[in-house]
Amino acid sequence: MPPAKRTQFDPARFLEAAGVKHRVIQVATDHVFFSQGGSANSIFFLESGRAKLTVVSKRGKEATVRLFFPGDFIGEESLAGQSEVHTATATAVVPCHAQVFDRKEMLKLLHEHEFSNIFLKFVLLRGIRTQEDLVDQLFNNSEKRLARTLLIMAGLGKTGEMQSIIPPITQEALADLIGTTRSRVSFFMNRFRRLGYVTYNGRIHVHRSLLDVLLHDRLPGHESETPDVADPEEVPKKVAKKKP
């Protein structure tokens, strides 16, 4: 007999059944869940949409450090109790639907065996994904970072089938997520479309063949084509040879 299917744990339903006070919110694109320096008194559970976590340095430079997807907790670091304020800003990349739980009640619930186990698993998986994001930023060029971001937004690696259509997102937002310019995103998106990795007509359709971009250092025809936009990550500097 085939093994029985395991029921997927739903943190939001568990919290609701446990009587944890909560409220449902909708966050519009570019609106914030919380701001850097703001009071860390709530935990968010993202039910739909996409969000990002950004940090602004003292010099005013902003960097995206994490992406959020349905099923993620946002602001869980405040449960550590090391700071009463948020050290980063969480912003909706596309319209989001989330549940908000009180920090103090969440701390009490962590003593529940079932929830503490699933929450620990979530924290560990978050740490692994954060490490993967760091490796992606350090070692991959902007082309591969864009491919990885599109695949993640399509749900690759999540349980269930990968969704072909990703939520509506602008090229400016994609550029911000991968740390590059809109012109580079436009160039690479056009290349992906020519190669059949993506199609878009108002919405972006991501195909599994886009994985080829991550599995290979270069796209087909990459060396034979001259990029429309000079990309310092793609064009190595030539060292002039001295004549004898």
Name of the CATH first level of the largest domain: Mainly Beta
User: Number of DSSP strands?
Assistant: 10
Round the mean pLDDT to the nearest integer and report it.
Answer: 76
CATH H-level name of the largest domain... which superfamily? Jelly Rolls
- Low-pLDDT regions: 1-7, 222-242
Q: Architecture of the largest domain, according to CATH?
A: Sandwich
CATH fold field value of the largest domain: Jelly Rolls
Number of domains: 2
- Strand count, sense and closure of the main sheet? 4 strands, antiparallel
H-E order: HEEEEEEEEHHHHHEEH
Indicate the multimeric state.
single chain
Strand portion, in percent?
15-25%
Strand order of the largest sheet: 1-8-3-6
Distance between the termini: 79 Å
Written overview of the protein:
This protein is an alpha+beta fold and 244 residues long. The chain folds into 2 domains: 11-137, Jelly Rolls, CATH 2.60.120.10; 140-215, Arc Repressor Mutant, subunit A. Helices cover 32% and strands 20% of the residues. It contains 7 helices and 10 strands. It has helices at 11-17, 103-109, 113-139, 142-153, 171-178, 182-194, 211-215, and strands spanning 22-27, 32-34, 42-48, 51-56, 62-68, 73-74, 89-92, 96-102, 198-200, 204-206. The longest helix has 27 residues, at 113-139. Mean pLDDT is 76; it is low at 1-7 and 222-242.
Main features:
four-stranded antiparallel sheet, 244 residues, disordered N terminus, Arc Repressor Mutant, subunit A, 20% strand, globular, disordered C terminus, 2 domains, 32% helix, Jelly Rolls, 7 helices, 10 strands, single chain, alpha+beta
